[in-house]
Write a structure and sequence with these properties.
Blueprint: H1 2-6, H2 10-41, E1 43-48, E2 62-64, H3 70-80, E3 84-91, E4 97-102, E5 112-120, E6 123-125, E7 130-132, H4 138-141, E8 146-151, E9 157-163, E10 169-170
Antiparallel strand pairs: 1-8, 2-7, 3-4, 3-5, 5-6, 8-9, 9-10
């Protein structure tokens, strides 16, 4: 196949490169639009953070996050023998989410929302597991106890901020 590509004219190779580049840009921009839509139109919920790794000195100023409910989700997913899906979370009056069960098509109450998860090995990912912040702002975010997520009706979530133990926003809003 490589010989076939090498034998193409310069104009054909240039056209192929342009089409591939255009496709990549379309895919990336569609993902950006989807995530912006979730942030702007999604419901807000707070997930309690579990003890986390300290900031990374190699990758700049960011905090590695773990969500407290991932252990419960991992156990439920293991029992059901599934690696990807949605969970049901219930929001308390302050907006904090707690794990209810795996979603199997059941009707949700007014205080319940879907949240997408992916299980890889023994770890579960609910949303972004890293929060990047401006250099020198570590002290601002070091007391984070909650991750703020915007979530759409299908359970797809975007991390939009961090909160302290009293549920006060830390730092600037991302959007």
């Amino acid at each position: 196949m490589l010989n076939t590509i090498i034998g193409l004219s310069d104009k054909t190779r240039l056209t192929i490169m342009a089409v591939v580049t255009l496709l990549i840009l379309l895919i990336v921009n569609s993902q950006i639009i989807i995530k912006e839509s979730i942030v702007n139109n999604g419901d807000t919920l707070l997930l309690r953070l579990a003890p986390r790794d300290p900031r990374s000195l190699l990758q700049g100023d960011y905090m590695a996050l773990r969500y407290a409910m991932t252990g419960e989700v991992a156990q439920a997913a293991k029992s059901a023998k599934i690696d990807d899906g949605n969970i049901i979370v219930n929001l308390d009056p302050t907006g904090e989410a707690s794990f209810v069960s795996l979603y199997e098509g059941q009707q949700l109450t007014e205080t319940q929302h879907l949240l997408r998860f992916r299980k890889r090995g023994e770890s579960v990912r609910l949303a972004s597991d890293a929060y990047f912040f401006q250099e020198g702002e570590w002290e601002t975010y070091s007391n984070a106890h909650f991750g703020e997520l915007s979530v759409n009706d299908d359970g797809f979530a975007v991390l939009t901020g961090l909160y302290d133990q009293d549920k006060n926003r830390l730092g600037d809003k991302l959007h």
